Structures are given as structure tokens and as C-alpha cells.
């Protein structure tokens, strides 16, 4: 590559669905790819979902073969637990410094038997399960996560945090996979182009106290509900209230945080409709009410999905001024209709659909990459009408929800587009 | 050559060894025909294990390798690589899953051992019928045909054309640019269209690696991925043009729903009712004027025209309707504008702000149902119902009505679907290979779709799809590189095929063609993805799924019943 | 328990969903009866009716075909073909003097480890109730 005066290798940041697709496509073309992922696993947000709209395909069935392919791909070097620290140079010749945190479990030696979890004396809320389940200080986020190799969480491990001489996990491992001596590494990569696919997080609904999240026990976020329905999740896919019973009536509230953020998150209406399917599948008699402001179901197949969901007898209520409060043993959702009438509806469970927003570290990453964020914090494309995967910085491309809220189809299209841009210009 | 089968059982540390009597598994298989060696190992997937396997293959001159260990999902590829390194064809290897589907799920060690024996014997029985399979390489042509010269087609052509890849861009009208050239400005930034679009059109025309045909239609496309033969014909000529390409991109865009189908909007009967496209043209070409030559004082913009009939939301109508308010305010600051909508669909990061800013300019947004446009005594009015406990009918007088009709697939879609042998969905748009992971591919390998041909969408989204097509093509159809199709595909025996075509009807990828001369079906090895559906359907046993042949699977069945 | 009837069941699992679901059941250490011998095929649509019939004639007490949920087939519509063939097979079984419940078609996705366990357990129970394959008994008489 030296003779050409440029480097054809590509760095992809973020191993969600957009990052995975981009890496696989680049590898197929023969490019060397470095895929840098912050967490210990790949798959991003999509692997949290049991099924995906609108064809209600099983997300694991859809993504797992891609994840496997990626892990076995010789052109792709996956760096988990890693973050980009600095970038120098320009299109064709970037020099990237990556900080790779130690996993303390050897990726080659570990066979993923999970024998080390049990003896670990530390029990914590599992973030991947949105706090609905527990994990140990050595853990994989959920069964089926890939790579199926645990990581030690040094923030909570007795040995690393408190300096105790615990080595129960190490003793349980028959494969000498656990290595407390691993060190964080600084890795320098030379690449010609960078694709940023660091995705999104969701709005924190404690900022909108009217919905009762955090105060009332059976108010859940969409992510929490996704994990509750997941067959590899904390309840094995059973939809249950905190008291262990299944809900008889559920309210789903759209657009949580939309006013605060000032934009429509594109996918909330659709996944809220998907929740009808989840609920009816497990609890055929459950009463469901959806509180929405405008139904946003764009595209060729989405309205059909909406109509199918409507046939289940769901109560679709166009309203605003929603407030959730405790009443007796249950909850009441107060709401105003378009003409100003006020009503209340008693329910046992509330699911909130919070806005999609940039990840909290987006400002930092924007500085490292030297690319701008827009008013909403998403990374800005070079030209919103004609070039939505290019950034003002030549050679740095963006794809997926890091560019703005969107569904999987559009995230994948953008990631393929970023590959198209890279392959045609570098 | 006599077969020499080696069987290796992995202990997987305690994972298998603790719940399976491995020695009994070895005993059960060592006497089987062809088995020359049966051994255990602590951890076959480790570096040490791989070395051990390689040494064994060489030392015993193994012709077949059976491993009983974990799931093939995990380590099939690992061990296939070991085979390759040891000079053994990787398809002469079989992995019995005695961990995930045996040791880990069966409580009782006796039962688990019996099950492990069954699985391992099955692998031995089956492997006797394995044949070495080889990767093939097939020549391919890197050039590309793009059908439709709108923004998506232009973008795809520009990205794909290079000194070693020619692009043929075929446009049925007399000029390229598509529908976008009718628009003066674009939402949400109200940027003028012409500069950028004109530049792109010029780039296409000047690019010596793009051959653009206007007034031309595609007559015939034969062949398959990497090797298509295309015939195109210009309206004005009788001669056909023929060329070869490796891939085809369909960017045939959209049509607008015809509002004369819905008489309630008065289109075609009342004089100042316009479609969105007519309004765009009026605005691009000159001033916004009524038929009587005066500028309108009040305008009603009606969203979702034809939505109910089509059964989908067209995604961009709300946004361009908001843009129309901007056009109007820019030219006629005092104009009254009322937007009649059902649901506001302004998804994405900057669109709601565009809506709010427009609303602040004094544009009324009315959520309305049962909209009707009438005229009496020369005064047009929009009548509608609003949502309330008791349905209430209201009306607004306007001098101009603009309709936002649904986006439909382009008029020739069915013709193109037939020529290319790709699917159209119920809505008329071309169907993508996979709703989420293959938005721009089709189930016919080598044929791609982008822009509104795939479904209603905005210009930036159409461009993204065009770029995505480029990503797909540039990564798979590389000048100077041969195609490497899937190995475990189906084949049809000339001798047994009775020419019933059952297989053709079940193949999801149109990978089987009928040879009219020999009167038999033939699998195209570039297109076949190896699902095996044809071999299950074939009544004569002619179609056979490599590596999953009847014989091979039958052996597994027999061992399961032993 | 000696003498108790342990059924022999052949389980065809499609590679992309059900085989993966079975693996996940394993990774999650979910226990189930050992009665089903799984055979990996690329797609449930690969399961040849002749293979199923042969399995019964050679003494299978039950045959399970498991594939992706409708609409999820990795090859678009293989599972629909499987379903169609099934309806026909069930009829054929009756003419052979076999209870059609001995043949089961189930959809198990890659994330449904617990469901795989459930399917295997239930089907095994069912076959136990039905008793040994009557055709096999006839042939061995
Ligand atoms: C509740 C809910 C349900 C949904 N359901 C559906 C559905 O059914 N169908 C559908 O089409 N869409 C659905 N969506 C939308 C879908 O989740 C997104 O379209 C999709 O996940 C976007 O993928 P991505 O790769 O852009 O981002 P992500 O999935 O967020 O992946 C980003 C990856 O980047 C990593 N990362 C982040 N920062 C860094 C960094 N600094 N360095 C390195 N790595 C980093 C992350 O760890 C992660 O792995 C849903 C959304 C929500 C909130
Ligand atoms: S670290 Fe050891 S004990 Fe833990 S999962 Fe890996 S191999 Fe098993
Ligand atoms: S194996 Fe599948 S893809 Fe290949 S020819 Fe047969 S039906 Fe078509
Ligand atoms: S189904 Fe079999 S016999 Fe019929 S055409 Fe296909 S290969 Fe030939
Ligand atoms: S691949 Fe699972 S049923 Fe077709």
C-alpha cells in the first residue's frame, strides 16, 4: 500500500448492526477492517430485541449468523472493550490510537462454558438487562451474546476494586483462560478511511416526571420491556409485574421526551405497535391502550403492520397532557384529547417509548474525530440533501443512528452506502 | 483407495468428559468399518489440539475426519481449516455435536453417553458418503447497467463508473435528472435543487466511463450475476444495442397517484386544484398564479391523497407540503395557508423543527377527516370533519388547492419485474432481498434496487440507497477477480431428471433454469445458495443437495433409530 | 427405570434458527429427555418427505421437523414449502396406519432455547403416550 501513497484499510467504530454490516461488506471486497467496539460484545442495541418490526423476524436469527461470520472473518480485526483516543492525519492516511481495556479472559483459551460465573461472590444489576436481571463481576451480558467470552468488570471485582485476593473464577476455569495480569493496551492503527457507527441511546424518562418512571413500580422503558419479552432475558420472556403477576391492562405511551428533544424519533410508533404483538402473543386477553400524538408509520409496509395490530382490538388514543399516577393498587393514566376533554384510564403496567438520542460520549467522540454535532447532538452529515453519510471531514463517514434516529433497514442502507463511498473513493 | 476414518472425541475440559463416558464412545466407534483410529483429547480447539489433529491426519494417512465435540456453529470452520492445512479436503470432515446438544442438556450420564454414541456413529456412517467438494471460480464482467436516470440512478452511476468499470445508464425519457429537476428547492434547508443536480447531470454526461442512453428502454436481460447480456433500444432507432454487464441496478423511481380517481378532491373538475407536481412546476417555471392570472390569497394543501386507497404512508408528503407553505410565503407573504392532514409524519432529526418554524410563519395545520373540495358561486372551499366527541363539520374558503398524492411505483414496474425476473410487492414496489439486512439487494443475485423503486422515500434516502448499491457491487464484483460461489449447492442429474420443473417452482432464488433442448432442469451454480428445497421437492431424486445428500442424511436417520 | 419405553425420535433442525435455538438451550444448560436425535439440515424445506416416511418405516416413534418461524426462513420461503409438504405427509401416515401426531412441525427461533426444551419435552411425552411405532412392531412380528 505504501507505494500508492495511501492506506486502503478501514476503521469501523461501533459494532452494532450498522458497524457489523459495513465491516462484512468491506471484508468481502478484500479490505482489511479494524472494528473497534466499546463494550465486551458485538451486536449493539438490536440484539436486545426478541423480534423486529415489521415482519416480526427473530432478531437473534437475523443477527447471529452475521456475528458468527464476523468473528470468523480473517480480514476483520475486532477490538472489543476498546475506544478510539486520538486520530491524526487525513483521508488515505489516518493514524489512530486505540485504548484497549483488558478483558482478563483470554479470547483464545476461553471456551465459553460459563463455569466461572457461579463462584464469583459479587452480584450486581445487569445493565444489558436494564437492571431487571443480575450478573456477576465476571459475566457475559446475556446467554447467546457473542463473542461468548466473559469479561471481568474491574469496577466491581473484589480483586481489582478492593484489592482482595479473590480468585474464585480463576480456580473454576479449567482452561486457564482467566488472566489477572492482562494489561490495558495502547494500539496504533493506520487506516485510510473511518466509518463511525456508534449508534444511540434512549432519553432518560426520569427527566419527565409526569410519567412516573422511577417512582411507580410498574412503569417500564421500551428497552426494559424488550428484555422482559426476550426469551434469553431475565424473565425468560414472561411479561410480569413486580408482584409476579401478569398484567391485565397495559398502557403504552409514545413520544416520551419528544417535546424536550424537539424531533420525532422515527421508530417509536413502530416498536410501540410491535409491543402489541408481544403482549397479545403472551397474554391474549390483556387490554392494551396506546397513547400517541401523531402516528408516524412511513414506508411501504408499515401501515399494513399497523392495521394488523389494530385488528387485535387495541385502544388507540390520540392525546397529550399525559400523566401517570398511583391509584389504589394500580395506576391511572390521565390524558387530554385533541378537543381538550380529560380522561383517566386505570392500568397495571405502563411502557414508555423514550426518544432516541445520541450517546453521552458523542461530544467527546466528535472532538476526537473532528466532526461536528448538530443541535440535537447527532453527527452532522456534509450535506443533508445530497450526502448523508459523508461528514465535512474527508474520509470520515457516518452510518446508522449516530447520524439520526432510524430503523434497522435505514441503518443498514447507510452502512452499505458508507462502504460504497469508501470503495469508490479509496 | 480404501477409506481411513479417524474419530476424535473432545473432552472439552470437564464440559463433555464430566457427563459422557468418552471411552465408551471410543469403544462404540472403533470397530466400525473404515475407522482406523479413535482417540480422545482434552481440548481439540486449542492450539495444541489442532496440532494433534494435524499430526494424526498425517501419521495415519486419514481420508476422513470425524470429530465429536461442540456445535458446528462454533468450530466447524476451525476444524475445516485444520483439514485444509493438513491437506485433507475440508468436506471430508464431520462434526458431531455432543456438547450443546448432548452433554449439556441430558441430565443422566448413561443417557448422555448413549446419545453421544448415536451422534458419533451417525457422523461416521455419514462421512463414508462424503465426496470432496471444491471451490469454483467463475469469470465475471464488472460493468453495470443502471435503469432509470433519476437522482438514485445518477448517484449510483457516478459512484460505480471508473477506469475499469463501465456503466450503462438507460433512461426512458429524453433527459436525465428524474423528478428532482422539477423541484425548485428541497426540504428542510430550502436549498436550491438546480445547482447540485445540474452539476451531477453534467458529471454523468462528461464521464467517459458512463454511457448514457436517453429515450431508451431495456428490451431484454439474460444471464445471471457476473454475466448478464442486455439488449436496449432507442425509441428513434430500429437497431438494438447489446452489451454485457455483471450487475443491474433498478432506479426507475416513482409515479404519483392519480387524483382523478377520487372525485371528492375536485381534481380535473375544479379549475384551481393542482397536484403537488404541478405546483412544483408552476413554482419552478415562474410565478404562483391562479388560472385567472391573480396570485392566490388563500391556499389549502391536502395531505395523504390516496393513502387509504394505497394502504401506506408515502413518507415525504407531509414534508413537501410544509415546503410548499415556504414557497408560498416567500412569494406571497400575505397568503393564508391551511394544511389538512391526518397524522403528521416528520420523522428524523431536523424535520420537526422545519415543521415548527413553518407553523410559526402563520401556517394553519388542521387535523381533518373526510375532506372534500367543492365550489359554489365561484368560491372554492375545503370541507372537512374534525375529531371530537361529536363529529363536527367545518370548512375553509380557498382559491387554490394543492393535493399531495401518494407515491406509487413507476408505471413500467411490472414490465421491468418481468424482464429481470424480480418480485414486486403488493404495493407495486420492488421487493428487497431482506427487509432489514438486504434493503437494496433482490432475491436475484446481481440485481439491485434503489430509491423510490424500492419504496417511497426522500432524496437523501434515495441517494443513500444508491450509494448502498455501489457498496454492494463494489465489494462483490471486482475487476480482475473471479466470483466464488457457495460450495454446498444443489445439482441435478441429467440422467434422472424427468423435466417436471417442480424444482424450478420452489427455488427462492430463481437458480434453476430449464434446458429446452435436453428437456431437463439445470442448477446455476452462481445463483444457488444451497437451501436444498429443490432436492426435497424433486419427485425423481434427480436434484441432490451437496453435503446433505439423501444418502448422507439417510445414514444419520438410521443411526438415530439404532 | 428398566423396561420403560424410551422413544426414538428423529429431529430435523434447520441450520439458521432451530439448530441455533437447540444450541442456545445447551449453552443455557436446559435439561431435556435424550430421546430426540437431531440432524442438521440447511433449511426445514430440505426435509424430503421420503426421508420422513423412511424414518417411520424403519421404526421411528416420532419425527420432529423444526424450522424458522413463518416469514423468518433464511431462504425466504423454505418453511412454507415444509409446511405444505407436511399436510400431505400427515395424510400418507394415516394410510400407513400411523397416528399423524407422531409427526410434528415446530417453529423454534435462535433465541428460543427454552422453547426448544419445551418442544422436545412435550413431544417426547406425547410419543410416550402413543407408545411404540405400530408399523415397526408389525414388521418385527
Ligand atoms: C426499544 C426499541 C425497539 C426497536 N425496535 C426496532 C425494530 O423492531 N425494528 C427496527 O428496524 N428498528 C428498531 N429499533 C431501532 C434500531 O434499534 C436501530 O435502528 C438500530 O439499532 C441502529 O443500529 P446502529 O448500529 O446504528 O446502533 P447501535 O445498535 O446503538 O450500535 C452501536 C454500537 O457502537 C458501540 N459504541 C458506541 N460508542 C462507541 C465508541 N465511542 N467506541 C466504540 N464503540 C462504540 C456500541 O456499544 C454498539 O455496539 C428499535 C429501537 C428501540 C429504542
Ligand atoms: S473463562 Fe474459563 S470458566 Fe469462564 S467461560 Fe471461559 S473457559 Fe469457561
Ligand atoms: S438448493 Fe435452493 S437455491 Fe439452490 S437450486 Fe435448490 S432450491 Fe434453488
Ligand atoms: S424436480 Fe427433479 S425431475 Fe423435476 S425438473 Fe427438477 S430436477 Fe428434474
Ligand atoms: S432456514 Fe430455517 S426454515 Fe428455512
Protein chains sharing the most extensive interface: A-B, 73 and 72 residues
Question: Which CATH class of the largest domain in chain A applies here?
Answer: Alpha Beta
Mean pLDDT over the full residue set of chain C: 90
CATH class of chain C: Alpha Beta
Number of domains of chain C: 1
- Helix fraction of chain C by DSSP (H/I, runs of at least 4): 40-55%
| Bound small molecules, deduplicated | flavin-adenine dinucleotide, iron/sulfur cluster, FE2/S2 (inorganic) cluster
Largest sheet of chain A: 5 strands, parallel
- CATH fold naming of the largest domain in chain A: FAD/NAD(P)-binding domain
Task: Categorize the overall geometry of chain A.
Answer: globular
> Approximately how much helix is present in the residues of chain A?
10-25%
N to C succession of SSEs of chain C: EHEHEHEHH
CATH superfamily of the largest domain in chain A: FAD/NAD(P)-binding domain
Strand line-up of the largest beta sheet of chain C: 2-1-3-4
| Separate helix tally of chain C | 5
Strand content bin of chain C: 15-25%
Q: List unreliable stretches of 5+ residues of chain C.
A: none
What does the model show?
Chain A is an alpha/beta fold and 426 residues long. Chain A folds into two domains: 2-101 and 184-200 and 358-425, FAD/NAD(P)-binding domain (3-Layer(bba) Sandwich), CATH 3.50.50.60; 203-355, FAD/NAD(P)-binding domain. Chain A has helices spanning 17-28, 59-72, 158-162, 168-172, 222-229, 258-261, 268-282, 302-310, 362-369, 408-425; strands spanning 10-13, 33-36, 51-52, 57-58, 76-79, 82-90, 93-100, 124-125, 134-135, 138-139, 151-152, 185-191, 193-196, 200-202, 219-221, 249-256, 287-292, 315-318, 320-327, 330-336, 342-347, 349-354, 356-358, 396-398. In chain A, the strands form eight sheets. Chain A has a five-stranded parallel sheet with strand order 5-2-1-13-24, covered by helices on one side. In chain A, strands 15-22-16-17-18 form a five-stranded parallel sheet. In chain A, helix 1 (17-28) crosses helix 2 (59-72). The model of chain A has no long low-confidence stretch (mean pLDDT 94). Chain B is of the alpha/beta class. In chain B, helix 4 (72-85) links the parallel strand 3 and strand 4. Chain C is α/β, with parallel strands linked by helices and 141 residues long. Chain C is built from five helices and four strands; from the N terminus they run E-H-E-H-E-H-E-H-H. Chain C has helices spanning 18-27, 49-57, 78-96, 113-130, 134-140; strands spanning 9-14, 36-41, 62-67, 103-107. In chain C, strands 2-1-3-4 form a four-stranded parallel sheet, with helices on both faces. Chain C is globular. Chains A and B meet through helix 1, helix 2, helix 8 and helix 10 of A and helix 12 and helix 14 of B.
Amino acid at each position: 500500500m505504501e507505494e500508492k501513497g495511501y492506506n486502503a484499510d478501514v476503521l469501523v467504530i461501533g459494532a452494532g448492526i450498522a458497524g457489523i454490516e459495513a465491516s462484512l461488506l468491506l471484508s468481502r471486497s478484500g479490505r482489511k477492517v479494524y472494528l473497534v467496539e466499546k463494550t465486551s460484545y458485538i451486536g449493539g442495541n438490536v440484539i436486545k430485541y426478541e423480534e423486529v418490526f415489521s415482519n416480526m423476524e427473530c432478531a437473534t436469527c437475523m443477527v447471529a449468523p452475521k456475528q458468527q461470520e464476523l468473528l470468523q472473518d480473517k480480514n476483520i480485526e475486532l477490538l472489543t472493550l476498546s475506544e478510539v483516543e486520538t486520530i491524526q492525519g487525513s483521508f488515505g492516511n489516518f493514524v489512530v490510537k486505540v485504548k484497549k481495556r483488558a478483558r482478563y479472559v483470554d479470547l483464545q483459551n476461553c471456551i465459553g462454558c460459563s463455569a466461572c460465573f457461579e463462584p464469583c461472590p459479587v452480584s450486581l444489576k445487569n445493565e444489558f438487562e436494564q437492571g431487571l436481571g443480575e450478573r456477576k463481576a465476571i459475566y457475559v451480558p446475556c446467554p447467546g451474546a457473542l463473542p461468548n467470552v466473559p469479561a471481568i468488570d474491574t469496577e466491581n471485582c473484589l480483586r481489582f476494586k478492593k484489592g482482595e485476593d479473590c480468585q474464585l473464577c480463576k480456580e473454576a476455569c479449567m482452561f486457564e483462560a482467566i488472566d489477572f495480569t492482562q494489561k490495558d493496551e495502547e494500539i496504533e492503527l493506520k487506516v485510510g478511511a473511518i466509518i463511525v457507527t456508534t449508534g444511540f441511546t434512549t432519553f432518560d424518562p426520569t427527566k419527565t416526571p409526569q410519567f412516573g418512571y422511577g417512582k411507580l413500580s410498574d412503569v417500564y422503558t421500551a428497552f426494559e420491556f424488550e428484555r422482559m419479552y426476550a426469551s434469553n432475558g431475565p424473565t425468560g420472556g414472561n411479561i410480569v409485574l413486580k408482584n409476579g403477576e401478569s398484567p391485565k391492562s397495559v398502557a403504552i405511551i409514545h413520544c416520551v421526551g419528544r417535546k424536550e428533544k424537539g424531533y420525532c424519533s422515527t421508530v417509536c410508533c413502530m416498536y410501540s405497535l410491535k409491543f402489541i404483538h408481544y403482549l397479545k402473543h403472551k397474554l391474549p386477553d390483556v387490554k392494551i391502550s396506546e397513547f400517541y400524538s401523531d402516528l408516524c408509520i412511513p414506508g411501504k409496509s408499515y401501515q399494513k403492520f399497523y392495521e394488523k395490530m389494530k385488528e387485535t382490538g387495541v385502544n388507540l388514543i390520540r392525546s397529550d397532557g399525559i400523566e401517570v399516577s398511583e391509584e389504589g393498587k394500580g395506576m391511572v393514566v390521565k390524558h387530554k384529547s385533541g378537543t381538550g376533554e380529560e380522561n383517566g384510564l386505570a392500568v397495571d403496567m405502563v411502557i414508555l417509548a423514550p426518544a432516541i438520542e445520541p450517546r453521552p460520549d458523542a461530544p467527546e467522540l466528535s472532538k476526537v474525530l473532528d466532526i461536528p454535532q448538530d443541535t440535537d447532538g447527532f453527527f452532522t452529515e456534509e450535506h443533508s440533501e445530497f450526502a448523508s453519510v459523508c461528514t465535512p471531514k474527508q474520509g470520515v463517514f457516518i452510518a446508522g443512528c449516530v447520524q439520526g434516529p432510524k430503523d434497522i433497514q435505514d441503518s443498514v442502507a447507510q452502512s452499505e452506502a458508507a462502504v460504497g463511498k469508501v470503495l469508490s473513493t479509496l | 483407495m480404501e477409506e481411513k476414518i479417524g474419530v476424535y472425541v473432545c473432552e472439552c475440559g470437564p464440559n463433555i468428559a464430566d457427563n459422557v463416558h468418552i471411552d465408551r464412545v471410543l469403544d462404540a466407534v472403533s470397530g466400525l468399518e473404515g475407522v482406523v483410529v479413535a482417540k480422545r483429547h482434552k481440548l481439540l480447539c486449542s492450539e495444541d489440539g489442532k496440532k494433534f489433529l494435524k499430526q494424526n491426519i498425517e501419521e495415519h494417512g486419514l481420508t476422513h475426519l470425524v470429530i465429536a465435540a461442540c456445535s458446528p456453529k462454533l468450530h466447524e470452520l476451525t476444524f475445516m481449516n485444520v483439514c485444509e492445512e493438513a491437506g485433507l479436503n475440508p468436506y471430508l470432515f464431520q462434526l458431531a455435536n455432543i456438547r450443546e446438544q448432548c452433554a449439556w442438556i441430558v441430565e443422566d450420564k448413561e443417557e448422555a453417553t448413549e446419545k453421544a454414541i448415536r451422534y458419533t456413529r451417525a457422523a461416521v456412517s455419514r462421512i463414508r458418503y462424503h465426496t470432496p467438494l471444491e471451490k469454483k471460480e467463475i469469470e465475471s464482467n464488472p460493468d453495470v447497467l443502471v435503469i432509470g436516470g433519476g437522482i438514485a440512478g445518477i448517484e449510483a452511476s457516478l459512484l460505480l463508473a471508473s477506469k475499469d468499470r463501465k456503466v450503462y445508464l438507460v433512461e426512458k425519457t429524453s433527459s436525465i435528472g428524474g423528478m428532482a429537476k422539477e423541484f425548485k428547492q428541497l426540504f428542510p434547508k430550502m436549498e436550491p435543487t438546480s445547482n447540485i443536480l445540474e452539476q451531477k447531470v453534467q458529471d454523468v454526461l462528461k464521464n467517459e466511463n458512463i454511457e448514457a442512453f436517453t429515450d431508451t428502454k431495456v428490451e431484454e436481460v439474460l444471464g445471471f450475476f457476473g454475466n448478464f447480456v442486455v439488449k436496449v433500444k432507442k425509441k428513434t432507432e430500429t437497431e438494438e444495442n447489446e452489451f454485457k454487464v455483471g450487475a443491474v441496478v433498478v432506479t426507475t423511481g416513482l409515479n404519483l397517484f392519480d387524483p382523478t380517481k377520487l372525485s371528492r378532491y375536485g381534481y380535473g373538475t375544479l379549475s384551481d386544484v393542482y397536484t403537488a407536481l404541478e405546483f412544483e412546476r408552476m413554482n419552478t417555471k415562474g410565478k404562483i398564479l391562479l388560472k385567472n392570472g391573480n396570485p392566490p390569497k388563500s391556499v389549502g394543501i391536502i395531505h395523504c391523497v390516496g393513502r387509504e386507497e394505497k394502504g401506506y404512508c408515502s413518507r415525504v408528503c407531509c414534508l413537501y407540503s410544509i415546503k410548499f407553505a415556504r414557497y408560498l410565503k416567500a412569494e406571497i407573504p400575505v397568503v393564508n395557508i391551511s394544511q389538512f392532514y391526518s397524522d403528521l409524519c416528520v420523522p428524523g432529526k431536523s424535520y420537526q423543527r422545519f415543521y415548527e418554524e413553518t407553523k410559526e410563519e402563520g401556517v394553519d395545520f388542521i387535523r381533518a377527516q373526510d375532506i372534500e373540495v367543492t365550489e359554489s358561486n365561484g368560491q372554492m372551499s375545503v370541507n372537512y370533519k374534525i375529531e371530537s366527541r361529536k363529529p363536527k363539520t367545518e370548512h375553509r374558503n380557498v382559491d387554490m388547492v394543492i393535493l399531495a398524492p401518494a407515491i406509487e411505483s413507476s408505471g413500467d414496474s411490472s414490465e421491468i419485474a418481468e424482464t429481470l425476473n424480480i418480485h414486486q410487492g403488493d404495493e407495486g414496489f420492488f421487493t428487497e432481498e431482506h427487509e432489514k439486512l438486504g434493503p437494496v439487494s433482490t432475491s436475484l443475485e446481481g440485481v439491485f434496487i434503489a430509491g423510490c423503486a424500492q419504496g417511497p422515500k426522500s432524496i437523501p434516502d434515495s441517494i443513500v440507497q444508491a450509494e448502498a448499491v455501489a457498496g454492494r457491487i463494489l465489494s462483490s464484483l471486482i475487476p480482475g477477480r473471479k466470483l466464488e460461489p457457495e460450495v454446498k449447492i444443489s445439482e441435478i442429474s441429467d440422467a434422472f431428471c424427468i423435466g417436471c420443473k417442480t424444482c424450478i417452482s420452489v427455488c427462492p432464488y430463481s437458480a434453476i433454469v430449464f434446458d429446452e433442448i435436453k428437456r431437463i432442469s439445470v442448477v446455476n451454480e452462481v445463483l444457488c445458495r444451497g437451501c436444498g428445497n429443490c432436492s426435497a421437492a424433486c419427485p425423481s431424486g434427480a436434484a441432490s443437495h451437496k453435503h446433505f445428500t439423501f444418502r448422507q442424511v439417510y445414514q444419520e436417520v438410521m443411526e438415530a433409530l439404532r | 427405570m428398566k423396561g420403560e419405553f424410551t422413544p426414538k425420535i428423529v429431529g430435523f433442525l434447520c441450520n439458521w434458527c432451530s439448530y441455533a435455538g437447540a444450541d442456545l438451550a445447551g449453552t443455557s444448560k436446559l435439561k431435556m429427555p435424550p430421546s430426540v436425535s437431531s440432524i442438521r439440515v440447511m433449511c426445514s424445506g430440505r426435509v424430503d418427505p421420503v426421508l420422513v416416511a423412511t424414518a417411520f418405516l424403519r421404526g421411528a416413534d416420532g419425527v420432529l421437523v423444526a424450522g424458522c418461524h413463518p416469514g423468518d426462513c433464511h431462504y425466504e420461503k423454505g418453511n412454507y414449502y415444509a409446511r405444505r409438504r407436511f399436510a400431505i405427509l400427515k395424510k400418507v401416515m394415516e394410510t400407513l396406519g400411523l397416528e399423524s401426531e407422531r409427526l410434528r412441525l415446530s417453529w423454534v427461533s435462535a433465541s428460543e432455547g427454552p422453547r426448544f426444551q419445551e418442544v422436545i419435552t412435550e413431544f417426547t411425552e406425547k410419543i410416550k403416550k402413543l407408545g411404540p411405532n405400530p408399523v415397526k412392531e408389525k414388521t418385527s412380528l
